[in-house]
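Standup notes, structure subgroup. Blocker cleared on the zinc ion input:
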Amino acid sequence: MDLYRPAYPRSRGAAHYRRPGTSASYCGRTVEAAPTEEKYVTGVCRTCVKAEQRDRVAAEETAADRAIGGPTLAERAGMRYALVGKGRRVHYSNNDDTLCGREVTEYTDGVDQRHSNLCALCIRAAEERAYARALAAASPLAAAAVDLAETVEQADTDRAAAEEEARQAAAMVTEAEATEGTWRGEWIGATEATGHLFSLTPDREQGALFT
Ligand SMILES: [Zn+2]
Ligand SMILES: [Zn+2]
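Run returned:
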């Protein structure tokens, strides 16, 4: 960042930072057209240092979302841009809350004229998510672990289904036996009745014999 002396400096004094695109410093002084050197100044104005830092951080945050020729951080983290209330910052969200824990008021397409800065907390959280997603995508081991987990889950589902099938089959057998038992019981009863009937015949025969 270039250092500027106020226009028409009376003596060596503090240098200032020029607000980009203007002829004034961040602290509101009109500055010389050309930048100066450290040896001509005694230090840098605190107001200008703070303001310039704020601007630079905001610019870096906005840049963090833009990878030249690549997907944005929002895309890499699977996030949407969101606004909170009348706030001027743009946040990331993948549900009704932002990554920094605020309630989403509305979703937006990204930074614009009115909402020119991204939320630093959201950026940090999104970077972590993007990193985790990239790791999962890049690591065959992680992918294998996911596959295995799904296979085990499938096996569990299959076993549960097989057990249920066996249980139902057992229930049907039991039911069939019970029915059979009943039928058998009836049959036994009938046999006994028949036996009784038959027993009458020998009686009769016996009777006949005796007759
Ligand atoms: Zn200044
Ligand atoms: Zn946020």
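Discussed briefly. Residues 14-64 form one domain.
Next: hand off to the docking folks.
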